[in-house]
Amino acid sequence: MFKKNSLNFLEKLMLSSSPSGYEVEAARVFREELSGFCDRVETDVMGNTMGVLNPDAPFRVMLAGHYDEIGFQIVYISETGLLYFRSNGGIDKLNIPSSEVEILTARGRVPGVIGKKPIHLLSAAERDKALELSGMWIDIGAETREEAEKLVSIGDPVALKSNYRRLGANRIMSKGMDDKIGAFIVAETLRALSARKLKVAVYGVGTVQEEVGTRGARTGSFAIDPQVGIAIDVGFATDIPDVPKTQYGDIQLGKGPMLSHSCDNNIVLGARIRAAAAKHKIPYQECAAHRATGGTDACTIQMARGGVATALFSIPNRYMHSQVEICDLRDAEASVRLLTETIAGLKGTETFRPGLDD
User: Is residue 179 reached through a cis peptide bond, with omega within 30 degrees of 0 on the bond before it?
Assistant: First the structure.
């Protein structure tokens, strides 16, 4: 199990707020942690943060976990001081009413709640459908536009209220599991690899703007030009009611990371990862991706420059894109072990050509 300092880092990362395009808080936590064991730590103009081990090696492995999260942005302030907003990333409208939020202003966080018309005043038809975001607002307690404008500004990003909680012996809950758990695994893998003798360079990247089109992974992978790229993200746990296993597979919390079979996953690299899992007795779960391509940093990294051998580790996640996402620490720990053993076993001469290097 993770040591206390790693769990403290995880909590700090989860409690940071980082809507897509405004990832400064998470980047700061990630950067400060990596500086303790990486040879070099850099943050680029997009906001990606990368820790580097063995930087002079010509063979480069890129690990990517995005630390941006879904959120909102202020677009209008009413005469009565209510804030109207747009989505920033893939918002589930059913989860939004009555949520606590924090507006991230230049002077700090301003708390608020998302309000809507009370159920007593809704028509029967209105009660049976999801409310559009345009029918909601953020209430920060201001009585006038002038009072609100002293606290917030048009364009300010908005995050769901920060939260983090241990549930039972192994499970954790936060609004930021997608994908701060992936960024955490990247950092912990770098920590583990820093004690190993490496024949390859390792670039562990906390990426930005994944929720709005994997934009940070695009620029980060172009700059690094890796031979291997592994994205660590979240995937759908199907161990809850009414999720058909015949469509999405049998994926359980605590049984290890999901290893995908899809166009985004290099066959040769995938076989090497599974061989490392067998050799070191590390649990994992097989997953046939629910769509052929796209949706994670793996797809973007794969198509960088002349192509990259890629793989996707997915951490089973319940209640994705909500304020109460749940993951299991055992899945994170197995991911760190498997990534560490896979990368430590690379000689730096591999080419990963399907059908030629199997």
Answer: yes
Distance CA 180, CA 11 (A): 10
Contacts of 280 (CB under 8 A, 6+ apart): 337, 338, 341
Domain parsing of the chain, residue ranges: 4-69+175-344, 71-160
CA distance 287 to 258: 6
Go through 126-157 and write b for each residue having 16 or more CB atoms within 10 A of its CB, e for each that does not: eeeeebebeebbbebebeeeeebeebbeeebb
Judge whether 211 counts as a catalytic residue.
Answer: no
Q: What is the mean pLDDT of residues 231-247?
A: 94
DSSP track, 215-234? HHHHHHHHHH--SEEEEEEE
Superfamily of domain 71-160: Peptidase M42, domain 2 (2.40.30.40)
What pLDDT does residue 236 have? Answer: 94
- The C-alpha angle with vertex 259 and arms to 243 and 206, in degrees rounded to 5, equals 100
- H-run or E-run covering 31: helix 24-34
- Could you say which of 3.60.15.10, 2.60.450.10, 3.40.50.150, 3.40.630.10 is the CATH number of the domain covering 4-69+175-344? 3.40.630.10
| Residue listed under structure tokens 């912990």 | 188
Q: Which residue has the higher pLDDT, 56 or 130?
A: 56
Closest CA to 138 of 93, 48, 72: 72
State the pLDDT at residue 125: 67
From 69, 210, 333, 341, the catalytic residue: 210
Report the C-alpha dihedral over residues 90, 95, 101, 104, rounded to 10 degrees.
0
Stretch 171-178: mean pLDDT: 96
Q: Whole-angstrom Cα distance, residue 18 to residue 25? A: 6
Question: E strands within the chain?
Answer: 40-43, 49-53, 60-66, 71-77, 83-88, 100-105, 108-115, 137-139, 157-160, 165-167, 171-174, 201-207, 228-236, 258-261, 285-288, 309-317, 325-328
Q: Kindly report the number of other CB atoms within 10 A of residue 201's CB atom.
A: 21
pLDDT for residue 95: 87
Read off the pLDDT of residues 117-162 as tens digits, 9 standing for 90 and up: 676 656 666 667 778 888 899 999 999 999 999 999 999 999 999 9
pLDDT of residue 38: 98
